[in-house]
Amino acid sequence: MLRSKTNRFVIVLGRQSDPRFLCAIPAGFPYLCSFWLRYIPPSYNGRFLLSADIAFAFGSIPASVEGRRVIPSEVTYVNVGDGGLRTAMQGRGGSAPIEGHPTPRRLRHMEALVRFFSDGLILDPFLGSGTTAVAAKKLGRHFLGFEISPEYCKIAEERIALVEAQPNLFEKKAEQLVLSR
Fold it and tell me: What is the residue range of 121's domain?
Protein backbone atom coordinates (compact mmCIF):
# COMPACT_ATOMS: atom_id res chain seq x y z
CA MET A 1 0.00 0.00 0.00
CA LEU A 2 2.82 2.43 0.79
CA ARG A 3 4.33 1.97 -2.68
CA SER A 4 1.06 2.52 -4.57
CA LYS A 5 0.72 6.12 -3.35
CA THR A 6 4.31 7.13 -2.56
CA ASN A 7 7.02 8.20 -5.03
CA ARG A 8 9.79 8.91 -2.56
CA PHE A 9 10.56 9.50 1.07
CA VAL A 10 13.31 11.08 3.14
CA ILE A 11 14.61 9.90 6.50
CA VAL A 12 16.55 12.36 8.65
CA LEU A 13 19.06 10.96 11.11
CA GLY A 14 21.13 12.73 13.72
CA ARG A 15 24.86 12.04 13.83
CA GLN A 16 24.44 9.59 16.69
CA SER A 17 21.41 7.79 15.24
CA ASP A 18 21.82 4.11 14.46
CA PRO A 19 21.36 3.70 10.67
CA ARG A 20 20.97 -0.10 10.72
CA PHE A 21 17.19 0.14 10.45
CA LEU A 22 17.64 1.53 6.93
CA CYS A 23 18.09 -2.06 5.73
CA ALA A 24 14.32 -2.50 6.22
CA ILE A 25 13.50 -0.04 3.43
CA PRO A 26 11.55 -1.87 0.70
CA ALA A 27 13.44 -2.68 -2.51
CA GLY A 28 10.78 -0.75 -4.45
CA PHE A 29 12.35 2.43 -3.09
CA PRO A 30 15.89 2.57 -4.46
CA TYR A 31 18.44 4.78 -2.73
CA LEU A 32 18.35 8.22 -4.35
CA CYS A 33 20.89 10.37 -2.49
CA SER A 34 22.21 11.68 0.83
CA PHE A 35 21.66 15.27 1.86
CA TRP A 36 23.81 16.88 4.57
CA LEU A 37 22.09 19.21 7.04
CA ARG A 38 25.01 21.22 8.44
CA TYR A 39 25.08 23.42 11.54
CA ILE A 40 27.35 26.39 12.16
CA PRO A 41 28.42 26.57 14.91
CA PRO A 42 28.37 22.87 15.83
CA SER A 43 27.20 21.63 19.19
CA TYR A 44 28.35 18.91 21.54
CA ASN A 45 26.77 15.84 23.03
CA GLY A 46 29.31 14.69 25.60
CA ARG A 47 32.55 14.15 23.67
CA PHE A 48 30.79 14.04 20.29
CA LEU A 49 30.97 17.13 18.09
CA LEU A 50 27.68 17.45 16.21
CA SER A 51 28.13 19.45 13.02
CA ALA A 52 25.47 17.90 10.79
CA ASP A 53 22.52 15.59 10.49
CA ILE A 54 22.01 13.56 7.35
CA ALA A 55 18.92 12.94 5.25
CA PHE A 56 18.62 9.82 3.11
CA ALA A 57 16.28 10.05 0.11
CA PHE A 58 14.72 6.95 -1.46
CA GLY A 59 12.47 6.45 -4.46
CA SER A 60 12.05 8.26 -7.75
CA ILE A 61 14.03 11.27 -8.90
CA PRO A 62 11.98 14.46 -8.40
CA ALA A 63 10.77 16.17 -11.56
CA SER A 64 13.02 18.92 -12.92
CA VAL A 65 11.01 22.09 -12.40
CA GLU A 66 11.89 25.74 -11.96
CA GLY A 67 13.63 26.20 -8.62
CA ARG A 68 14.91 22.64 -8.39
CA ARG A 69 16.70 21.85 -11.63
CA VAL A 70 19.78 20.83 -9.63
CA ILE A 71 19.42 19.08 -6.28
CA PRO A 72 22.20 20.16 -3.91
CA SER A 73 24.00 17.74 -1.62
CA GLU A 74 23.77 19.90 1.50
CA VAL A 75 22.24 22.93 3.16
CA THR A 76 23.84 24.84 6.02
CA TYR A 77 22.12 26.57 8.92
CA VAL A 78 24.24 29.43 10.28
CA ASN A 79 23.41 30.89 13.67
CA VAL A 80 25.21 34.13 14.49
CA GLY A 81 23.16 35.17 17.52
CA ASP A 82 23.09 38.68 19.01
CA GLY A 83 25.40 41.28 17.50
CA GLY A 84 27.03 38.73 15.22
CA LEU A 85 28.55 36.84 18.17
CA ARG A 86 27.98 33.12 18.26
CA THR A 87 25.60 32.04 20.99
CA ALA A 88 26.14 29.30 23.53
CA MET A 89 25.79 25.91 21.92
CA GLN A 90 22.48 24.39 22.87
CA GLY A 91 20.25 21.94 21.04
CA ARG A 92 20.89 21.20 17.37
CA GLY A 93 22.98 23.74 15.55
CA GLY A 94 23.94 26.10 18.34
CA SER A 95 20.71 27.99 18.92
CA ALA A 96 18.33 27.89 21.84
CA PRO A 97 15.81 25.05 21.54
CA ILE A 98 12.21 25.84 20.71
CA GLU A 99 10.51 26.33 24.04
CA GLY A 100 9.30 22.94 25.22
CA HIS A 101 11.22 20.74 22.75
CA PRO A 102 14.85 19.72 23.31
CA THR A 103 15.92 18.95 19.72
CA PRO A 104 13.88 20.73 17.06
CA ARG A 105 14.92 20.47 13.43
CA ARG A 106 16.02 23.69 11.76
CA LEU A 107 13.44 25.28 9.47
CA ARG A 108 16.04 26.04 6.78
CA HIS A 109 16.91 22.33 6.61
CA MET A 110 13.31 21.14 6.42
CA GLU A 111 12.42 23.79 3.81
CA ALA A 112 15.23 22.47 1.59
CA LEU A 113 14.06 18.86 1.97
CA VAL A 114 10.44 19.80 1.24
CA ARG A 115 11.42 21.99 -1.73
CA PHE A 116 13.69 19.44 -3.40
CA PHE A 117 12.03 16.12 -2.60
CA SER A 118 8.26 16.64 -2.35
CA ASP A 119 5.64 16.77 -5.05
CA GLY A 120 2.53 16.15 -2.98
CA LEU A 121 1.55 15.30 0.56
CA ILE A 122 4.25 15.51 3.23
CA LEU A 123 3.94 12.82 5.91
CA ASP A 124 5.82 13.35 9.17
CA PRO A 125 5.28 10.39 11.53
CA PHE A 126 7.31 12.11 14.29
CA LEU A 127 5.96 15.67 14.16
CA GLY A 128 7.73 16.94 17.27
CA SER A 129 7.63 20.75 17.33
CA GLY A 130 6.23 20.84 13.79
CA THR A 131 9.21 22.13 11.81
CA THR A 132 8.46 19.95 8.76
CA ALA A 133 4.80 21.01 8.85
CA VAL A 134 5.83 24.69 9.04
CA ALA A 135 8.17 24.21 6.06
CA ALA A 136 5.42 22.47 4.09
CA LYS A 137 2.92 25.21 4.91
CA LYS A 138 5.37 27.98 3.93
CA LEU A 139 6.05 26.24 0.61
CA GLY A 140 2.37 25.60 -0.17
CA ARG A 141 2.50 21.83 0.33
CA HIS A 142 -0.07 19.69 2.14
CA PHE A 143 1.14 17.82 5.20
CA LEU A 144 0.04 15.20 7.68
CA GLY A 145 1.86 14.81 10.99
CA PHE A 146 1.64 12.41 13.90
CA GLU A 147 2.94 13.04 17.40
CA ILE A 148 2.45 10.99 20.55
CA SER A 149 3.21 13.84 22.97
CA PRO A 150 0.31 16.25 23.65
CA GLU A 151 2.83 18.93 24.67
CA TYR A 152 4.68 18.73 21.34
CA CYS A 153 1.35 18.71 19.45
CA LYS A 154 0.46 21.99 21.11
CA ILE A 155 3.84 23.51 20.14
CA ALA A 156 3.36 22.35 16.54
CA GLU A 157 -0.21 23.70 16.38
CA GLU A 158 0.97 27.10 17.64
CA ARG A 159 3.82 27.25 15.12
CA ILE A 160 1.54 26.26 12.22
CA ALA A 161 -1.03 28.88 13.29
CA LEU A 162 1.70 31.55 13.22
CA VAL A 163 2.61 30.62 9.65
CA GLU A 164 -1.05 30.68 8.60
CA ALA A 165 -1.51 34.13 10.18
CA GLN A 166 1.62 35.57 8.57
CA PRO A 167 1.16 36.64 4.94
CA ASN A 168 3.79 35.77 2.36
CA LEU A 169 4.97 39.12 1.01
CA PHE A 170 6.22 37.59 -2.22
CA GLU A 171 3.15 35.52 -3.09
CA LYS A 172 0.77 37.19 -5.51
CA LYS A 173 -2.88 36.78 -4.64
CA ALA A 174 -5.45 36.42 -7.43
CA GLU A 175 -6.88 39.89 -6.70
CA GLN A 176 -3.37 41.40 -6.98
CA LEU A 177 -2.98 40.04 -10.51
CA VAL A 178 -5.95 41.98 -11.89
CA LEU A 179 -5.00 45.39 -13.21
CA SER A 180 -7.60 48.09 -12.59
CA ARG A 181 -7.98 51.15 -14.81
Answer: 2-177
